[in-house]
Fold:
Amino acid sequence: EPKRKTAFGSVGRRIPYRILHVINQDGESLGNMHRAEALKLMDQHDLKLVLLQENAEPPVYRLMTGQQIHEEQLRRAEKKKASPKPGVIQKELSFSSAIAKNDLETKTKQIAQWIEKKYHVKVTIRQAK
Structure:
């Protein structure tokens, strides 16, 4: 299973790279600078450093306010909800033909919930002895 990407947010002072490309809170490029310079700038302006592109050379970081980080997190969450899910989830349920009435009602409710969530549902009924 591939490693999950960390959530969008401030990286604090834990920056593994020596040279960074820094963008200010208005979106203007400040160019490449050493990690210590970027941290000093972050402290002077009371901002937070956020990793934008890790695979770029050098990695791109942006100085952001807490409010900007929060808004970006909300924007990404909405985008993730809106994007279609890859593949269809299939749920399977099996029970005996001699199932009790209340158990059948419970399983029926479960199936209805799965269908509302747009899952494919497979029901197997085994014959009672």
About this structure: Residues 90-126 form a domain with the Translation Initiation Factor IF3 fold (CATH 3.30.110.10). The helical segments are 35-44, 66-82, 101-116. The chain has three helices and six strands.
